[in-house]
DNA sequence: AGTGATTTTTTACAGATGTATGCGTTGTCT
DNA sequence: AGACAACGCATACATCTGTAAAAAATCACT
């Protein structure tokens, strides 16, 4: 050509991409058609992609959610994120997340050979039970991962494990103890009872754990109904806690806070939970953003189930909102 | 899922496409990641494409031209179209087309083992010679496909073949005869001369033909300089002709017109040209639109070299201008 | 429960794609 | 002119992709 190299090569790449993407020709066909080698065509496509000449856009109502999930997944460094679409007009923190949790558990049970599933408790998990279909999994055992509350407003904390078991057609194993021991009770002595030893041994053998997280506020079922009188929410916050997972209060970095309350908690140790093969944490609500981040940092989440409202709040504000139109240069490598 | 099937499957397809196109994951990786089979992922991508969910856009200054060429190529039913970018401020019909012709010929000579190249003549081909680099093709013979003019304004019609040969470093073979025999000369007798028989035999053995086309107007070098006095342009038009290729006047359908002039023309028969393996026709200008269409219909064009202005005029107005953003559903089949 | 029909899942295989290797050509420097 | 380096090209090969057929599972019906 009389024209200079850059133009010519761009024009060539343009024509190659046109045939490839628009006309659907194969690289070999294009090479034959343009009297060149397949290698050249292949390289032209790769160059065009890396130059951002080829733009792939996915048009679907689900794109925003998928993108959000993907970004959050990378940011939190966890395996999977599900951001269920929340009702923005009647936002309740639990409805959509519960449905998504039910769907995930159902799907997982269909394909995985889970035997023991550890469960936490709380309003989010209660919502999940409501959405579960009736299944038959006689080989599955639902293992309660922490003690229960002695009083409550809406549901019995022990009923979470049994409720899961009932819907899943599974057996269950409760931890028949208060979540927080009374003052003066010797923890080691209490737990030395044989029945507890058997139960704690199951924690090490869980195939999956269904968790939730709460902040420290009256909205937290645990704080509202379970906290011993001598521990005020303010005192726990003072100690650096921003919320709890399984009754264990964590600081911003996901570390268990050093506080007398922790030594009175009856339930699985978070270090044990970390070793569980599949950890599903379901939680939503603007007030839970910090504790979800902390739980992720602690390594307590493989699959995060939340809603799109919370997910939006979870993503780093620094990471500017990307458009759904992205370059597909990734195929190059 | 609690949601209905359509939504779920669309959401799934969206997520799959996201991973595939945006994250650049392989179908197998996505299947493993989403706990499903590669088949499902493959089908989801195909469904998304066929639903128009995936849009591929090529962003390049050359897109418009490439698209134009491709559309024209299909419409004319020829192998290749090159629409060189014309200078719209100083439009001359020949500059850009000549450069493109030179580029094509150079490229073809580099890769193809052409031995005999037939050439027409005219201002467009003259422009091509000007843009040809100096090459060395001692094994190539340039064969003039028609007789010459006895007078002219700008260039000698015989110099086209010799000019090509000089630039290409090839030998040449002229047809030393007038393009139109004088009245009363017996054509068969004239052509029975041995030297012409040899030359005409070469027409059957051409590897390629470099052609052009003109309308019937003073802008045509042939009409202006070559037409016998007894044939007025009006008379030829009257006979149905809209232009000529190699001195053969064609009607709209590309048929050689039945006219006394045709029986006095000295040059290759168009039926012979049709059998030439590679026919390159270079022509541009709004006035040449009709004759280019006719030449294509006649099967005289494998590669059309024109400019973008002419190409725009050549495409059927009925075929609405498509946008450069097209669905890439073609990969499905 | 048994049986047949329908649908999924698995498996296999034929292209298509992306990459590395070695060879030949071109151009350049001494 | 000869040697060397750089570049491009053909080949080969390891995935990846798309599709069809076989096997298995599920479902509907008797």
TrEMBL record, chains A, B:
Membrane-spanning ranges: none
Family annotation (InterPro entries): NagB/RpiA_transferase-like (IPR037171), RNA_pol_sigma_r3/r4-like (IPR013324), SorC_transcr_regulators (IPR051054), Sugar-bd_dom_put (IPR007324), WH-like_DNA-bd_sf (IPR036388)
Protein's UniProt keywords contain Cell wall biogenesis/degradation: no
Span of domain Sugar-binding: 61-315
UniProt entry keywords in alphabetical sequence: DNA-binding, Transcription, Transcription regulation
Pfam families linked: Sugar-bind
GO molecular function: carbohydrate binding; DNA binding
Coiled-coil stretches noted in the UniProt entry, renumbered to this chain: none
Protein family (similarity comment): Belongs to the SorC transcriptional regulatory family.
Name of the protein described by the UniProt record: Transcriptional regulator
Species name: Jiella avicenniae
């Amino acid at each position: 050509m009389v024209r200079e190299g850059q133009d010519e090569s761009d024009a060539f790449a343009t024509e190659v991409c046109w045939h490839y993407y628009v006309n659907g020709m194969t690289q070999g066909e294009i090479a034959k058609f343009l009297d060149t080698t397949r290698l050249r065509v292949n390289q032209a496509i790769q160059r065009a992609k890396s130059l951002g000449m080829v733009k792939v856009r996915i048009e679907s109502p689900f794109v925003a959610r998928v993108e959000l999930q993907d970004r959050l997944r990378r940011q939190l460094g966890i395996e999977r994120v599900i951001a269920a679409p929340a009702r923005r007009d009647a936002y309740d923190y639990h409805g959509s997340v519960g449905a998504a949790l039910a769907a995930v558990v159902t799907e997982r049970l269909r394909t995985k050979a889970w035997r023991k599933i550890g469960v936490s408790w709380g309003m989010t998990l209660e919502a999940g039970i409501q959405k579960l279909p009736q299944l038959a999994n006689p080989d599955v055992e639902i293992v309660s991962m922490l003690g229960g509350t002695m009083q409550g407003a809406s549901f019995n904390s022990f009923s979470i494990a049994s409720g899961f078991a009932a819907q899943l057609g599974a057996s269950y194993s409760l931890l028949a103890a208060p979540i927080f021991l009374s003052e003066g009770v010797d923890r080691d002595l209490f737990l030395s009872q044989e029945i507890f030893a058997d139960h704690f041994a199951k924690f090490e053998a869980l195939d999956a754990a269904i968790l939730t997280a709460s902040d420290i506020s009256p909205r937290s079922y645990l704080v509202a109904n379970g906290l011993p009188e001598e521990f005020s929410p303010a005192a726990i916050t003072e100690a650096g806690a921003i919320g709890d997972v399984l009754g264990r209060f964590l600081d911003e970095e996901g570390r268990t806070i050093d506080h007398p309350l922790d030594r009175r908690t009856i339930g699985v140790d978070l270090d044990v939970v970390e070793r569980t093969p599949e950890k599903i944490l379901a939680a939503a609500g603007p007030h839970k953003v910090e504790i979800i981040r902390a739980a992720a940092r602690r390594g307590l989440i493989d699959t995060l189930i939340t809603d799109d409202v919370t997910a939006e709040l979870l993503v780093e504000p620094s990471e500017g909102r990307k458009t759904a139109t992205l370059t597909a240069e990734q195929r190059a490598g």
